[in-house]
Amino acid sequence: xxxxxxxxxxxxxxxxxxxxxxxxxxxxxxxxxxxxxxxxxxxxxxxxxxxxxxxxxxxxxxxxxxxxxxxxxxxxxxxxxxxxxxxxxxxxxxxxxxxxxxxxxxxxxxxxxxxxxxxxxxxxxxxxxxxxxxxxxxxxxxxxxxxxxxxxxxxxxxxxxxxxxxxxxxxxxxxxxxxxxxxxxxxxxxxxxxxxxxxxxxxxxxxxxxxxxxxxxxxxxxxxxxxxxxxxxxxxxxxxxxxxxxxxxxxxxxxxxxxxxxxxxxxxxxxxxxxxxxxxxxxxxxxxxxxxxxxxxxxxxxxxxxxxxxxxxxxxxxxxxxxxxxxxxxxxxxxxxxxxxxxxxxxxxxxxxxxxxxxxxxxxxxxxxxxxxxxxxxxxxxxxxxxxxxxxxxxxxxxxxxxxxxxxxxxxxxxxxxxxxxxxxxxxxxxxxxxxxxxxxxxxxxxxxxxxxxxxxxxxxxxxxxxxxxxxxxxxxxxxxxxxxxxxxxxxxxxxxxxxxxxxxxxxxxxxxxxxxxxxxxxxxxxxxxxxxxxxxxxxxxxxxxx
Length: 547
Description:
By secondary structure, the protein is mostly beta strands.
């Protein structure tokens, strides 16, 4: 009997303990503050849809009033279905929430479930690329935790750490976001600013041209005949026109055919203003003025007198103008370049022109005591020798520009090979005006006679090297000033002074007194194509503009 009572007491105690456990509800849970929420080992959950709970008797009877510093239970419960593999069983859990949930730290790798077995993608672990490797066809995480797909063809890239798309055509190099270390190559091509395509330069030239040689054209004293002890030279017998500089200009314009400045076409032109060597004298300064020549009939020196006491008075004037100019077109190609130098080669065409003349004019007044036909006659004698040289040829050259800060040095070396067209024009005349006003004109002067008067041409092969050296300073990004030196040489040119044949057949000279008259000397004078070299050199000041 005692044993039965003891068993009955034990059974009642078990029922008393188990009775309050079975009807477990969310309202009977022990509430705790958010700071005491489950730790990192708790599984993360996402609320799918809230489900209303039936209010308990306590809550229905009296509404809950929030008290400061206290935590009130919510009146919702959510059933979270968790998809488990067939080998695992889990029952829905009831979670009471009093604040927004944050994702818990992921469990260790050996305890993680297969991402494919969970219901939501947010529950899957995020795989990041290993440091030091570029992202290729994968997912890239930004600093804000946003995944970016790698850039494909024709897409606008999103650079890590940047908040807006970047136009790939304006690339700036490597990205600068927090994952920049993981990129080995630029995300898009480096941007190269547009370089100037057009360039032009203008410069002032102050050049000297080699003087030309001439025979003795004017003398004084002792009948004016060369070789006599009292004869002095007034003009000629040496080079003339080489002492004074010529003023001119040079212009260059070019255009680069590509943005990399590898190939360009350019046109260059230069000119020297016409400059003349002049000589004038008269009988007041020199009572005896003679024009010496070699008499081809007997091989002796002789002279025509412009002025002589008791015979005539007069003046003699000599003008020798020179004009040099040229044009050229080249294709310029970049051979190599560095941080501070550029080397280019040139190939093209060049034309150079040299126009010169030498004119001798006498104005003679015959005195009453002069022999016939000079008595009281006003006589004008003209001799003219004009030459033209026109060079046409191919041009080859090289140009090196070296930079040192804002300073630069330009070295240009080029040579042209081609044909030189030589043109010689010789004219001579005499004009007699009597005291009554009667005018008589005669063909032939003194040095220009029927034997050599005319228009003559010749062709000769010529070589024209050109060397230029410039020192420049970059005043503005697109404006450069420079000072330079140029040297030009031209082979096989003809010049007026060397085209004069002073060996004359006196029988061809109009109104020349002969006593006795010598036998003719055919072929004298003759047109002379005496080829010589010509150099031109000088300094320049100019500006180069880039656009």
